[in-house]
Specification:
Largest sheet of chain A: 2 strands, antiparallel
Oligomer: heterodimer
Strand content of chain A: 15-25%
Largest sheet of chain B: 8 strands, mixed
Shape of chain A: flat
Number of strands of chain A: 2
Number of strands of chain B: 8
Distance between the termini of chain A: 46 Å
Largest interface: A-B, 14 and 16 residues
Shape of chain B: globular
Structural class of chain A: alpha+beta
Amino acid sequence: MGFFRSLFPPKRSSASIAKERLKIVLAHERAGSRAPDFLPTLQKELLAVVGRYVEISEDMIRVTLGNAGDTSTLEINIEIEGAKPKTGSGPAFSAAV
Amino acid sequence: MAKVIVVTSGKGGVGKTTTSAAFAAGLALRGHKTVVIDFDVGLRNLDLVMGCERRVVFDFINVINGDANLNQALIKDKRHDNLFIFPTSQTRDKNALKREGVDRVMEELKQQFEYIICDSPAGIEHGAITALYFADSAVIVTNPEVSSVRDSDRIIGILASKSRRAERNEPPVDVHLLLTRYDPARVAKGEMLAVDDVKEILSIPLLGVIPESESVLRASNTGTPVVFDEDSPAGRAYVDAVARFLGEQREMRFVKPERRSFFRALFGRA
């Protein structure tokens, strides 16, 4: 069975791909429309600060505003896996992470 | 108290004018005095879909500017006494729809009618915002297709923030999903978003599902709202949607693929 399945992998329907893509893009846009205006600037400045220590590109940082019950949260995700430490100035890479 | 209903979608070509015409005619058939207004200034088309294009003398902008009074501009439908059409202007002046003027005309319409249907232009520009501003209810016309669903989500957000109800902190505009151009056979094959998928993504209550139907083009060809075609599945689906809007419980029809009989399969589509 496993052999046949690997030969003919079940093809995902295009409708289910559409649904998943919509869910992701709308989650982003809904969060974006409620977010305060400073978020893009904050994201840029964070990128600049982190960029002083690690080589990082724009798509590796994500700033989102969320709501959990009564508290609102500011979530900052910085992906540094595979990022190269900047050589030369600044504190040691290991200490920064 | 008169109720203002906006028919909107964000995206163009999904069936707003068809829906406005069908919904207005459906409400009239149920005994409610109804007017349907074209908000698409510069691209007048509701008159064609309603079959009264040769009877337009004065329009919405003439009334706003005081060049004509309301009753000179309103066109009484020849098929039903309860149904009136309020055509828009073909002017290219984008700012002809002044909000104070529209407000005054709406107040005047509320004295005469039970339901005021506002046929919104596509987009999120001045015309579309003006069309939704005065709404008590909204019919969000959506096709089971990614760009239409995304634009509907955007319009739902705008209704919640830019309508007069939102500005005045009143109870929010009552929004309803109307899924149009639905093809149950393609949904069964996994080629089209299903009604439950769209409902789940937009998370607003479902008013109806209008199946893709040849009768819709036939209706606009002849200038007849599709609810007047009793043989049309789309027409019957609109009649159901109007009944649900008025508070009736009706089962959703035309959401499962039609079973083709042996003879139909043999001799092609009847």
